[in-house]
Amino acid sequence: MGKENLAQKRSGGGGLPTSTAAPAANGRNRGLGSLPRGRQIQKTFNNIKITILCGFVTILVLRGTIGVGNLGNSDADAVNQNIIEETNRILAEIRSDSDPNDPDELTETEVNPNITYTLGPKIANWDKERKAWLNSNPEFPNFVNGKARILLVTGSPPKPCDNPIGDHYLLKSIKNKIDYCRIHGIEIVYNLAHLDKELAGYWAKLPLIRRLMLSHPEVEWIWWMDSDALFTDMVFEIPLSKYKNYNLVVHGYPDLMFDQKSWIALNTGSFLFRNCQWSLDLLDAWAPMGPKGPIREEAGKVLTANLKGRPAFEADDQSALIYLLLSQKDQWMNKVFLENSYYLHGYWAGLVDRYEEMMEKYHPGLGDERWPFVTHFVGCKPCGSYGDYPVEKCLGSMERAFNFADNQVLKLYGFGHRGLLSPKIKRIRNETAAPLEVVDQFDIRRHPVHESSGSQS
Amino acid sequence: MGKENLAQKRSGGGGLPTSTAAPAANGRNRGLGSLPRGRQIQKTFNNIKITILCGFVTILVLRGTIGVGNLGNSDADAVNQNIIEETNRILAEIRSDSDPNDPDELTETEVNPNITYTLGPKIANWDKERKAWLNSNPEFPNFVNGKARILLVTGSPPKPCDNPIGDHYLLKSIKNKIDYCRIHGIEIVYNLAHLDKELAGYWAKLPLIRRLMLSHPEVEWIWWMDSDALFTDMVFEIPLSKYKNYNLVVHGYPDLMFDQKSWIALNTGSFLFRNCQWSLDLLDAWAPMGPKGPIREEAGKVLTANLKGRPAFEADDQSALIYLLLSQKDQWMNKVFLENSYYLHGYWAGLVDRYEEMMEKYHPGLGDERWPFVTHFVGCKPCGSYGDYPVEKCLGSMERAFNFADNQVLKLYGFGHRGLLSPKIKRIRNETAAPLEVVDQFDIRRHPVHESSGSQS
Which of A414, A435, B149, B317 lies at a 20 to 30 A Cα distance from B215? Predict the structure, then answer.
């Protein structure tokens, strides 16, 4: 060890030069007393300057390590930080528990464009087979209490969100769906798995829908709903009788579709597929643009070139569906209902600031711009790192939508949120010794609304 | 501004002394050429020393700010970190959106011990009123397809978990419950609200159960289940016929209860209450130890003094129930079923390491130590900061339990997890062009098991 280091060690701790007894680098000890006074003052000033500077930098180091304002609570924070770091380490281990060389390993891999991708073996007689199965299995009817059996399908990626708050909003989102579906007798499948390594991300819904159709013949309609879409009208019911001659119901606008060929002519965040051969065929026709890799990249260019307003990126399921329905219009459109008389999908930005106005002027059951059926947080991406909108706007708006809906559920129990931004609730009705009167009056299921006109039956 | 600062500014940026042209503090410019050679070398060494030192400290500052090993990805991490910090700031705003002086504000407050606490107005004739209501409302029967209507109730605190991974496991836990309940025709209420400011935490289930009984007369059984309890036997069904003369079914051991008076003689993490007057009365008798503050503290001391093995802490609902059933045994026990022939609650530590052995030797539908119905992660507390067990053990075990259960659900769809620690799935069966054969063979609902003997019907 050189004399410089020894000198630093002798000056203590971090070896920063101090204003006292700072030996020179060559080992010769120059006491301050042996210099002219001017030089002494100069040296002193220099030393003080360096001390202040490096002390300042030391404080910055400490600040960076333990955080400002935490000096009084460093123990608890240190433990908390330890727990979070340990958790992340464990998660990383869990996430890495896989063999990248395992051919069975379902990771989203690129597809050889020379091999034609299919969703599965061709099923050609599903209507007949399904009908026969239903006849043989009367204990699994496709209509219950006069209503067609609906299966609501949603999901999210298998791993924790990049942004921790994302999992909290996924939890609130599924609670919201559980409430709606309990009230309306709808079953739920929450998917946390990638069924097809070639179709992950927004394309994952295609193999999932197909799989569920074939595994649940008792289900009449499969309703896909994004995890970032919330029910905001707890009373409104989909007017299924309107769709008896249709097999796909999706929120969209004919003029945007056929006149403008816009890439947002319809929205695949919330749509219904009838469980039938036609739907299997449409899924087969829809899937080819999806496989990850050169196919999806090239398809993306085709879509951007042909659809108005579409940015340049890989093929997404929504653009691909629009393109398919435009290019094979005669084959498919007679069974596709582009619904816009209520918000099967309601783009959040125009809705979330009006909830108080809605509560003042209108009532649940309308499902449209007066009381939106579904508020869909397109572009917010709370689970990921990069949304298209400011985080504050998104989180606050999702909180408002959740509470706006939750108020409609809590009403039966006599509670409501303090405000649309508050997770806390308050009583809106005194407790009663005659609870059944309250049930008769407030249970949504006892006042079903079947038509989008909002009339109560 | 003094000359020192000017000097620092002229030397650039952070004002750290450099080896070139460092003007002296008194403004006199001493070029290096005017000093003897030895002194020049000494000064140079000093300057280099200081440069290296402060450079080193600067690096420490950067490290503390952006993290080790991130120098190659500092942009993305900086953005990520910004997002997380912004999210936390927004959350803090949302959480603070409340008026502490609002009397309607439902925060857990201490109770004046001189005022007798009650869950609500006394209901005295619930059986008769409920029966009349059921008769008048045949469209809301309490038995459906021969099965008593069950409402599964669970929940978690309204705010994001202290530990971010907690929300991810709450999400997986509710997905697990959604799967079981869909297969077995059970409705779910997921509670995210505090209905009673005096009874929060583990006591929150009491006002919630009461509220749901009174609001859902069509429900025959209310099944409370903790958020840290997972279904691990997707086939097993509760043998309700066994309990036709009982009103409370809870996992427990008579000898631990009556001989040892143990504080873990039963477990309130998973239990069923019949919707009837007796249950309302029991809830009323159970609640008095719960109110936050001196009541709960003092009650805790009574419980610790009377129950074997109980540590010293405030009264919890489980200990309070044991104490109540012991001290008023004749009043209540004839309607309480202490169930231990299957794992209505299965303590996780003895179970999670045996899942592979179970898969090898046994099959779903048994519900007991061979294939546990419920695996309950008592003490893990993934949502909080301080569990009773090492984080790694808890998280890994919860992952295993989740996947062990999920395999039973995915089987119908032809998939299974790569391993019990892996979120990724693989095919366990080739796709087929005859999907209905698979349905007949693998749909759990078509092979119900009603008795804990595990026989298939």
Answer: B317
